Amino acid sequence: METSLRYGVDSKSLLLHAKEKFPLNSVTHLQGHAELDTRIGAPTYLCGMIRRYFPEQYASLAVGVQYYRRQKLWYNVRGKIAFPVTADESVNFHIKGKYDVDEKILEKKPRGAAEFTWNIMDVTKDQDMRLKVGYEVVEKVPYFQIRETNWSLNVNSNGKWKVRYDL
Description:
Subcellular location: Plastid, Chloroplast outer membrane; Plastid, Etioplast membrane
Largest sheet: 12 strands, antiparallel, barrel
Family: Belongs to the plastid outer envelope porin OEP21 (TC 1.B.29) family.
GO molecular function: porin activity; voltage-gated monoatomic anion channel activity
Helix content: under 10%
GO biological process, one term: regulation of monoatomic anion transport
Membrane topology: Multi-pass membrane protein
């Protein structure tokens, strides 16, 4: 199970996030996420999805359902494809999209982004880094991520930021 602590500019409290993947076969898994708000002591986000990978195309497709404490139930479809830029695949160009609809299929939330990632392995012993720069197409917002082995910082041009620590 992957767990992390998360905090951001929109947060009023520290969040404990957990993710688990249950393999269904070699290219498909069931993925579950949960988020616990430490201030109120209750889950604020639950998600279940089936994700299929297409390794030859560097792509994945997922369908699932999400529950938000205030926004209730949402259904979603998401996809991602990577295009290696360098021969060693340390630099990649990603296109990703997500489409959410509420339980009554009245409200819709499309999202899409294009980004470059640079994975820098063995910066020091037992330390890897990833630099990511991208553009969120629907909101028209550039963003940046710096990720060290256990830490990541995400910042966008609207002044929003999030810090994540992997336990």
